[in-house]
Fold this sequence. Notes:
The chain is mainly α. It is built from nine helices and three strands. The protein has a domain at 88-261.
Amino acid sequence: MTLTNRSGGRVSRKHNTVIRFAMGAIVVVVASLAGQVPAMAQTSVANSPPPSSSTQSQTSSPTAGMNEQTGNARVLKKRSFLFPDLAYNGKPLTSGEKFKLAIANSVSPATFLGAGFGAGIGQAADSPAGYGQGASAYGQRFGASMANRASTNLIGTYFLSSVMHDDPRYFVMGDGSLKESVKYALRRLVIVRKDDGGEAFNWPGVIAPLATVGLANTYMPDAQRTVGYTFERYGWSIAASAGVNLLKEYWPTITRKVLAPMGIGHDSDKP
Length: 271
C-alpha cells in the first residue's frame, strides 16, 4: 500500500512502514482474540459481583482461587500520582469523573515527561522540519505534544467513553510473565472494559488518536499536513500507547521493588 500526498508524490517508505505497523498491530491483536470471544463477556475480578447464596456452593471450587489467577484485571490500593488512569477501585465512573480523569491525564507528570521526551526526540531528528531548531522550536514541539494528549483524553477518555459507557481506566494484570504482560498490554489497545465490568472493542482508544492527529493538522507545519504524515503520526501514537500500557503493567512492581526502597514510592501500590 502506497499513499500519495497532496502534491501527488509518493509517501516515503518510512511512512508506509509506520502506517503498516499501526494497521498490522491492530489486525494481529484482533485476530489473536478471535478465539477468546466468550471471555470478552465475562466480568473482571475487580468488578465481579459475589455469587448468590443459592449458587455459591456450586461455584466455590472454580472461583475460590480466581484472585490468584494470572490474567485477571486488578486494582491498586491507592491512586497513582504518575499515571492517574491506573484503576484503584472497581466502581464505575460517572461522566463527570471521566471528565476529571481526562483533565488529570492531560496534566499528569507522565504526560509532561512524555511530551518533553518526544519533543527532544523530534528536535534531534528535526521533525517536524517546519518547526526548525532552537528553544522556540522545542517549545512548539512540546506544546503540540501536550495539545495532542489533551485532545486524545478529552475525545477518548471523556466524550467517547461517556457516550459508549466504556471505562477508560487501565486495570493492571500485575502477575504475568513478560510474554503474558506484553500480550495483555497489546490487548488493551483494542479491548476496553465497560462500565458494567464487561468488555468490548476499544473504539475510544482507536478513534480518539486518529481524530487527534486530524485535528493537529490545524497547527502543524504546512509540509506535515498530508495524508501520509497524518497516518504516520497515528501509527506512532498507537505504538506509544502500546509502550505506555506495558509500562503501566509493570509500574506497581517498579514502585514496590525500585522506588519504595529508595524512599520515593510506597508498597501500597501493590495490586
